[in-house]
Amino acid sequence: MTKAIRIEQTGGPEVMQWVDVEVGEPGPGEVRIRHEAVGLNYIDVYFRTGLYKQPLPGGLGMEGAGVVEAVGEGVTHLRTGDRVAYAGRPTGAYAQVRVMPADIVVRLPGSISFEQGAAMMLQGLTVQYLIRDSYRVQAGDTVLLHAAAGGVGLIACQWLKALGVTVIGTVGSDEKAELARAHGCTHTVVYTRESFVDRVKEITGGKGVPAVYDSIGADTFRGSLDCLAPRGTMVSFGNASGPVPPFDISVLGNKGSLRLTRPTLMTYVVHRELLEPMVADLFDSVGSGKVKIEVRQRYALADVAQAHRDLESRRTTGSTILLPY
C-alpha cells in the first residue's frame, strides 16, 4: 500500500484527498516509478477545477522524478534502477509510487538532482517548444513574456538571454520584477500599475514585438495582440486568468496579418522523435549553466492543498515541488 492524492469531484483545493492506493505491476509498455519529487504546475489547477476534463475519480499532477522500480514487457529504453523524469499525461504524478506509460519517461542525468528534474521537465520542455517551434526566436529579437517571474518565466528569461533575445516581462510586484531581472529579463512591467501595451510600444519605438508568449489568457489576450508587430506571432499557452473568450478571427488580419497558435506540451511528448531532441536541448542548456533550475518552494505532497492555494493567489515564484515522503 502506498499514498497518493485523488479527487472524486472537481472544485477547490479541498477536493484533493491523501489516500491509500494499491499500485500493481507494470503492464506492457509501462514502468513503475518511485517518486523522489513531484512538480507543481498551473495545469494541475485546470484539472482540479474541471477546466480541463478527465475521468473521475482520478489523480492529479503531470511531472515527476524518481527511480524505476519495475519495467513492463516491451520497454527497452529503461531499466530497473534508472533515475528518470517525465512530464505529460496521464495525470497521476501526485503519488509516492505510480505505474505509467514508459514512452514519455526519460533518463535523468546524474548531474541533475531529482528535485531539479521534477521542477524542470514540464516547464523546461514548455520553454523549449515555445522558443524553438511556436515562434523560433533569433538573436536580436525583442519578445513579450507574461508571468516572467513564474516557473516557465524564469527558465525562459535565462534561455532567451543566452540566445541574445531582449525580454519584456510582465510581473505582479516590484519583488517579482527584481527576480525576473536577476534571471535575464531586460525590461519588467508591473502590470498592477502600468499598461504593458504602452510600455511595449515605448520600448520598441512603436514597432511592437514579433512574438508574445502569453500564459495568462483572458486578462491579457487582447492587449497582447496590440503589442505585436505586423505578421507577429501570438503564442497563447495558458489560462491563469481564465480561458480566452471566442473572438472574430478577422481581428488578426485587421491588426496586421497576425499569427495565433495555441500549443500544448502533450502534442510533443507523446512522440519520441519529438521528445528526445527536446529533452537533449533542455538538458544541454541546464548542463552548460545557461539555464539554472531553482526550486523556490517545497511542500509535503500531503499538504498539496496549501500549495494550490499559494499558486492560485500568486504567492509563489519560479518552480515549486512536492515531496512525497
TrEMBL record:
Organism expressing this protein natively: Cupriavidus yeoncheonensis
Q: Which gene encodes it?
A: qorA_5
An MF annotation (GO) of this entry: mRNA 3'-UTR AU-rich region binding
| Keywords per UniProt | NADP, Oxidoreductase
Protein name, UniProt field = Quinone oxidoreductase 1
SUPFAM superfamilies membership: GroES-like (SSF50129), NAD(P)-binding Rossmann-fold domains (SSF51735)
Q: Where is the Enoyl reductase (ER) domain?
A: 11-322
Lineage top rank: taxon: Bacteria
Q: Which PROSITE patterns match?
A: QOR_ZETA_CRYSTAL
An example of a Gene Ontology cellular component annotation for this protein is: cytosol
SMART domains from the entry?
A: PKS_ER
EC number(s) given by UniProt:
1.6.5.5
